[in-house]
Amino acid sequence: MAGFVNIRRDVDDKFYRYRMPVLLTKIEGKGNGIKTVVPNMSDVARALSRPPTYPTKFFGSELGAQTSVDEKNDRYIVNGAHDATRLRELLDAFIDKFVLCGSCKNPETDLIITKTELIVRDCKACGERTSVDMRHRLSTYILKNPPKKKGKKNKGGHAEAPSPSAEVNGNAGAGENGEAEGEGGSDDEMTRRIKAEASDLHTESQLVVEGWSADTSPDAVKARVAAVSAGIAGLGLAGGGDDDSEEDADSPYTQLGNWVKENPGASAVEVFKKVQELSIEKKHKAVQVLAQTLFTGEIITEIPIYLPIFQKMVTSEKHQKSLLGGIERFAGLEHPELIAVIPKILMELYQADVVEEDVVTFWGTHVSKKFVDKETSKKVRKASEPFLKWLAEAEDDEE
Questions:
Q1: Reduced to 3 states, what is the DSSP secondary structure of residue 272?
Q2: Which residue ranges are recorded for the region named Disordered (predicted)?
Q3: What domains, with CATH codes, occur in the chain?
């Protein structure tokens, strides 16, 4: 049976309160079907008070590997052969980014998603709330799969994990001296709650600190203006959809495109507020307009900045197709020099769970004249072949 280690492995104190099982790995399969199974992922995650899917997805993101989760049979898999030492190092990184309090470095935290969709670590030790890196791909997964509330049961019928010090150390629900705390909590607990609630008032300013901004250099602004000028003029060519209308000056889509053109340095938060102001946050064509107008020649570095917008707005297959159509017009008509990086663009959107495998595969294998002319459509889809091949091979490996 595996032993236990300190959750913070940089702490040598053998009496350190917070401990977890040593992460175990098992290599299965061979050739292209080889994979690494983590047999005790549930136990490790329970000690960290996090769903086991979170560290699993973190491993996949950091290693650039496909992951698969079978919660019913308690199977957590990372494609490829990865030794235990490497995964333990990545687990340390996960703990630092998504478990430890950013203020006191105590692991007794809960993940909370604020009303502005910012993920924060709520520390039960010092009462501080510190935000996680919203640009990390795992943050996207957490927003779509938020942690369940304590005491609730998950799909498998198991109660959610207790705090890091509980169960592993046998002192669940007890104070530092082993005395149970009352339901009402102490005055210190109340103070911590007040401080925690107050921290929510600063979430918007924290978003700016987290790097939700766009490139405002003269070259980037010039490229953005040129792209938008060409793009807005042709938005009406997109056609299709039950919310399409004549693209005149009063159209909310034209207004949105013009606003992006006039505000090249707008942050993701500001852009989404403008979309809400125009009451088109649920419209699939708004997704196309943003995909066509938000980016410049530096689209690969800009996608992570604006991903939160698309993660919020892309809610159906129709939205996904409009997003791909906007990218198709952006690269195919306005920035043909970027057709070569279509696979990278698709990879960013796919790994952020913005587009699904079936949708992007169908799009990439069916030439369409809905958004661009037939020849341009062929060029874009031809360029996407390396990504589609990767998708197919990853699917074969999992099977």
A1: helix
A2: 139-189
A3: 4-172+185-202 (3.30.30.170), 218-398 (1.25.40.180)
